[in-house]
Amino acid sequence: MDDSTVVKKCQNGEKDAFRTLVERYQRQAAGHAIAILFNREDALDAVQDAFIDAFKAINSFDKSRPFYPWFYVLLRNRCYKITAKKRETERVEDIEIFAPQSGLPSEERFALEKALLSLPKEDREIITLKYLDGLSYDELAEHLQIRKGTVMSRLFYARRQLHAKLTGKLH
To answer: Which domains does the chain have, with CATH numbers?
Structure first.
């Protein structure tokens, strides 16, 4: 059953239909929240709160549009609220962004994770969405609710900043 059918059922009052969306996107949402917050507990809280927000607002959702980009905005806003509350977020050192199967040797993977952790939140987010999730420029623009040109510009500067942090660490 595709998302628009599930959303239509939710909008028609079938509360159990929302469970399908949660099961379909919970893992992906958790990965995105961890990439933003770098704290597993906070990320899971943000995901749960974002799904609650989505459930409450499902009737205002335009079912002709894809569900996840709309949901991602709710999730990102929840993550930003958590960040704002903490100001000094706790960073979980043992979260591996790149799985051992990624093909990078562990030393290079560690250097890359450390460099990513040191980037500003917005740069970390756009790099994660582009290179770990494989989103296109158009998908990034929709997810982040910015123009495609802005996506390209942010990615350029984020990559440049990441490269500067990695210079001398991998070679």
So the answer is: 3-86 (1.10.1740.10), 100-166 (1.10.10.10)
Residue with tokens 């420029």: 137
Torsion of Cα atoms, 1 then 68 then 17 then 64, to 10°: -70
Q: Give 92-98 contacts, CB < 8 A, sequence gap 24+.
A: 92/38, 92/39, 92/40, 95/34, 95/38, 95/40, 97/35, 97/128, 97/132, 98/132
* Residue 63: burial class (beta carbons within 10 Å; 0-12, 13-18, 19+): middle
Alpha-carbon gap, residue 75 to 81, rounded angstroms: 10
pLDDT 10s digits, 66-106: 999 999 999 999 998 888 776 543 443 334 445 444 555 66
Tokens encoding 83: 């960040």
Q: What is the pTM for the complete model shown?
A: 0.61
Condensed to tens digits (0 to 9), the pLDDT of residues 19-51 reads 999 999 999 999 999 888 888 889 999 999 999
Helices (H) and strands (E) in the chain, counts: 8, 0
